[in-house]
Amino acid sequence: MVLAATQDDVIQTVRACGRHGVPFVARGSGTSLSGGSLPVADGVVIALSRLNRILSLDPVQRTAVVEPGVINLDVSKAAAPHGLYFAPDPSSQLICTIGGNVAFNSGGAHCLKYGMTANHVLGIRAVLADGEVVQLGGASLEGVGPDLTGLFVGCEGMFGVALEITLRLMPRPELYRTVLAAYHSLEAAGNAVSQVVASGMLPGALEIMDNLAIQAAEAAVHAGYPLDAAGLLIVELEGERIQVEAEFAALIKLIESTGPYEVRVAKDDADRARIWKGRKSAFSAVGRLSPDYIVQDGVVPRSRLGEALATIQRLSGEYGLRVANVFHAGDGNLHPLILYNGRNAGEYDRAEELAAQIMEMCIRLGGSITGEHGVGVEKRRYMPVLFSPVDLEVMAEVRRAMDPDELANRGKVLPAGDAPSLASHQPHPLEKAGIITRE
Amino acid sequence: MTATLDLLIVDSIAGVQEAVAEGGRLLPRGGGTKPATGAPPGAAAMLDLKRLTGILEYEPGEYVFTALAGTPLAEIQAELATHGQYLPFDPPLVEAGATLGGTIAAGLSGSGRQRYGGLRDFLIGARFVDGQGRLVRSGGKVVKNAAGFDLHKLLIGSLGRLAVLVEASFKVFPQPPAYATLRLQPASIEAALALMARLGAAKFDLEAIDIVANDAGNPHLLLRLGGLETTLLARMNAMSEWIGRGEILRGDEEARLWRETREFGWLPNHWQLAKAPVTPEQIPALERWLAARGAATRYISAGNLAWIGWPGGWEELSEGLRTLRLGAVTIVGTPGSLWLGTPGNMAMIARMKQALDPAGHFLDFAA
Ligand SMILES: Cc1cc2nc3c(=O)[nH]c(=O)nc-3n(C[C@H](O)[C@H](O)[C@H](O)COP(=O)(O)OP(=O)(O)OC[C@H]3O[C@@H](n4cnc5c(N)ncnc54)[C@H](O)[C@@H]3O)c2cc1C
């Protein structure tokens, strides 16, 4: 394990690994949910947490240049005095690093409107796995030539190590308006999402929780959710005050036509914060209902949400395992939590099988195996279902163009990989310690 | 084989694979609206993709469509418009006949990119044929996806030199139902940039922030708002009050202005056009250099991109950009000088070329 203090430490370590053929894994805060930051056998871990300086922040150009160990939320904190913020908001944002966000193209609750991390990274200085230091992209929103920055984001650390990242900052919206709608069925909540989207509005967030999640969140933080709802929808609009007020009036009318039995509008900032606190803690709260769980990150086309949820409910019944749903409905990104008790004989296997069924359903419905948590080691075996052998071969070749000896994060993402499989089905250690929560 | 075919017309993905497998040197072509990115005479056979056309999937409720590379943007926009949606990155040369594939390969977004982002922010997946004739897919057809490496990002700005794009999937958005534009005439480019900087921290959700540099004297600063008809005027008034002056454009006049921008209607006949990524702080020096040579330049997306209308030859412009440490790609004009000044990371690009087209079946970036 190398605790890098400077960018040069990282470069020298990568070069030394190259000389001796030793695999290495970059590590930010280690919050990866797909096993991305697991060390590899006989390899070096390059810890980047001390490379945590914000090197510059330009309020006119609306960019910040940061080192990879900078914590996601610290960028927004530094930008706040200028009325700016960094849009990607994974629920681990209190603790995860920009380097990790870049590696995983991380998301959050606002991806439909504002995109994922890739949309907010303009330039990267990186040391490639073969030791060369390269500058990709720059400070402009535009570029000439292939979008190398875009390729590097989401590479899951398999091309090299990001040393310096130029981020795009956005102006804080003038006004947020948030509404909760409670439904007697999860499908009705899912269908309401389709109607909001079809209306031509572009909400910043569209989230759904099912009853299990509502109960758990309510018990944990008293967000004031209707306890008997089978499906709870949260919709948030943001932007210029005049426009948002007008759209919000239309939104309420529309939501009322989708058959909710209760509609509640956030009265003020404190009320809004409560709603989001419940939503953001739901994940951890559900986790506490069960000794073990598996969390998934599949994506389905939004129009198939109702169908996907019904399938998950049916599978839950068939397998005799509880499944809680808390998810980013606006972009079809599901986060089903499969609850089980590893001490009951056969239950772990049943949970795994149920998870595999959900994954296959996502692919069958035309979606993806991961919306934001990445492939890592956990979803490696599903890659051949999503991609053809040729697709995977070309991905491996592009990777080898930067890492000929396959030293960076060896064995991950691509299915032939041999990194040990992830088998942690409990809350992340940091969650157990109460340091972070998740969506 | 000695004879070089100079035009190959294909109408299927398999046809593209066959053409690549034939082994001659190829350069894919869509609508031919960006001639400067083409091949100098005799350098390569044209692989004409205009018949590889059609929207394959479009689910309005999904905000996603998939189309073949040769599909004209005009056809896509017309289809999106019937559902109140649009391409938020506002690609140029739509009426001139630009295709989806050509727009991606040239990496072009227009003034409207200011609001939600550029082409790179909306391309979510693609299929392409690489230099070995292999059909490759990356990304997907859902708006959020983190599986596998995003190889399709490499095709943005690849100018047909890495692979032949055959199909692409995009995220789209609902289009604002109405627009209005505030036109200001600051005393100088510096004054325009200062106004723009003030706007950066203000609460206006602008669709476009353009500076028209050389419009008979004072530069123009164009600020476009979009949204509900019922609130647009109130928002516009609030903005013009905040700035303290300006002329409000609406309706046909406003639409014409942005259409002319999109189609480069402002570019005099026989002039050349280049795209240069910039930052606001680079603009004063660049504009001084360009204005002294009679260029007509538009700085779009809050000073992040310069469309340089150029009356002379490429060499002089390239030299000037080099001294300013700027790079550009040529769009309209004589082919053969793809990149000007100091473009991106050539060593990295060479690595990508080696990975996707090791035998050099597509043109070199140098050509
Ligand atoms: C409670 C909880 C909630 C979460 N919520 C979300 C969410 O809402 N949305 C979401 O997208 N994710 C979420 N995640 C997943 C995780 O937080 C993200 O993937 C995050 O980006 C990882 O950052 P990290 O600093 O912990 O990276 P690590 O876990 O340390 O590393 C992740 C990967 O990035 C590589 N890497 C790290 N730094 C670099 C670098 N500088 N250069 C190259 N490669 C590098 C590593 O090798 C590894 O493969 C959550 C995780 C937890 C535990």
Summarize the structure in words:
The model of chain A has no long low-confidence stretch (mean pLDDT 90). Chain A is α+β, with helices and mostly antiparallel strands and 439 residues long. In chain A, helix 6 (186-198) runs antiparallel to helix 10, helix 7 packs across helix 9 (269-287) and helix 10 packs antiparallel against helix 11. Chain A folds into 2 domains: 2-171, Uridine Diphospho-n-acetylenolpyruvylglucosamine Reductase, domain 3; 175-364, 3-Layer(aba) Sandwich (Vanillyl-alcohol Oxidase, Chain A, domain 3). Chain A is built from 14 helices and 17 strands. Chain A has helices at 7-20, 72-79, 98-104, 111-114, 148-152, 186-198, 211-221, 241-256, 269-287, 305-319, 347-364, 383-386, 389-402, 429-432; strands spanning 2-3, 24-27, 44-47, 54-58, 63-66, 84-85, 121-128, 133-137, 160-168, 170-171, 175-183, 205-210, 231-239, 262-265, 292-295, 323-328, 336-340. Chain A has a 7-stranded antiparallel beta sheet, sandwiched between helices. Chain A has a 5-stranded antiparallel beta sheet with strand order 4-5-9-7-8. In chain A, strands 1-3-2 form a 3-stranded parallel beta sheet, with helices on one face. Chain B has 367 residues and is α+β, with helices and mostly antiparallel strands. Chain B has 3 domains: 2-48; 55-174, Uridine Diphospho-n-acetylenolpyruvylglucosamine Reductase, domain 3 (2-Layer Sandwich); 178-341, Vanillyl-alcohol Oxidase, Chain A, domain 3, CATH 3.40.462. Helix content of chain B is 29%, strand content 26%. Chain B contains 12 helices and 19 strands. Chain B has helices at 13-22, 73-81, 100-106, 113-116, 119-122, 152-155, 189-200, 229-243, 251-262, 283-292, 314-323, 346-356; strands at residues 7-9, 26-29, 45-48, 55-59, 64-68, 85-86, 123-129, 135-139, 164-171, 173-174, 178-184, 206-212, 220-227, 247-249, 272-277, 296-300, 305-310, 327-332, 339-341. In chain B, the strands form 4 sheets. Chain B has a 9-stranded antiparallel beta sheet. In chain B, strands 4-5-9-7-8 form a 5-stranded antiparallel beta sheet. Chain B has a 3-stranded parallel beta sheet with strand order 1-3-2, with helices on one face. In chain B, strand 7 and strand 8 form a beta hairpin. At the A-B interface, helix 4, strand 8, helix 5, helix 6 and helix 8 of A face strand 8, helix 6, strand 10, helix 8 and strand 15 of B. The complex binds flavin-adenine dinucleotide. Flavin-adenine dinucleotide binds at residues 25-33, 36-37, 48, 68, 90-92, 96-97, 99-101, 103-104, 106-108, 156-157, 161-162, 372-373, 409, 428, 431, 436, 438-439 of chain A.
